[in-house]
Amino acid sequence: MSRELIQGFDPTRLQRIATHIDQQYLQPGKLPGCVTLIARRGELVWCQSQGLRDVERNLPMQRDTLFRIYSMTKPVTSVALMQLYEQGCFLLDDPVHKYIPAWQNLRVYKAGVHPNFLTTACQRPMTIRDLLSHQSGLTYGFMQRTNVDAAYRALKLDGGPGMTLERLVDELSRLPLEFSPGSAWNYSVATDVCGYLVQLLSGKPLDQYFAEHIFAPLGMQDSFFSVPTAKLPRFAACYQHQPGDSFSLQDDPQDSPFSRAGYLSGGGGLVSSVDDYWRFAQMLANGGSLDGQRIIGPKTLGFMRLNHLPDNSDLPSLALAGSFSETPYDGSGFGLGFSVKLDVARSQTIGSVGEYGWGGMASTNFFVDPAEDLLMVFMTQLIPSSSYPIRQQLRAMLYGALVD
């Protein structure tokens, strides 16, 4: 293999990524398959598809495979809402109840179990910035941590048959918050509420808004909430991690909820491909535009990439005990839709201050490093994302191959 550098990367050292994934994950049966893409200075550096997209049918992973990206939907929703911010539709310190009147009297959990909660008043109203930065006091049912998230599970608020953004917002109006807004950090359905606000402020369904204002301008032809029938053959199967480093089928692509019109979850409902998400990530890396299409202003994006936690705190100092994140806590803060690296040494993962990105429940991940003008998109389909440390290992190998 040639040792000529590709945008400052040594191709021989990059090949360690494919070897590592094959030897440590595919051959032992830990992962079904994956696609890894690295770009720098706007140019593709490396992209490799490995393993199978559908183990049961022995179908190979391909570069155009479609993946459930789950929480990698959140940055898309956050950009959509901030597009409307740029149009003067709201202010970040606006109380959420200005737009959702039923939320005027939200309260904070003190004791009890659903539906008999003892609550106390919020110290201040929830703002739109609280939603974007996960400081709202909302939660997720899958947390399995408190009596509040037990109520989310009972009401199936994380999604499922019959769920709509309108029903979510209505049900949440009657449930207590985990904490007073702005006083802690907790991963939550807040970005689904952001999706509701996009619909409310734009007057368009979320899927239509995404298609018109993000996907079409960026040429993202393989991103949607439900996979079109003609594209189902490219849709990957999704798997569940099992004890003993194996996996079982979790969602068959031929009978998947993602193949039918359903819940427009701004927090986790999109399907996409590695190249489509590269276009979205490259737009971010370029300061908000791609191929002459301006999606968001550079100052707005710069504002979103700041740490919005109080006193420049990192996640460990503000996150609720036992709460979940799609990024390692140490050395990371949170902006408006992304995690933000604050301290490289504390993070114990190579990178740069100011790096930002997020991941998804099925172990997908992306990040943008403005200091090095590079990005990575990693696609696979294994739930949960905490099954293996592959995302941190990929960073070590990626930066190990960057020599100029």
UniProtKB/TrEMBL annotation:
Transmembrane region(s): none
InterPro entries assigned: Beta-lactam-related (IPR001466), Beta-lactam/transpept-like (IPR012338), Diverse_Enzym_Activities (IPR050789)
Gene3D superfamilies from the UniProt entry: DD-peptidase/beta-lactamase superfamily
Pfam families documented for this protein: Beta-lactamase
Stretches assigned to the Beta-lactamase-related domain: 23-382
Protein name, entry field: CubicO group peptidase, beta-lactamase class C family
Record lineage: Bacteria, Pseudomonadati, Pseudomonadota, Gammaproteobacteria, Pseudomonadales
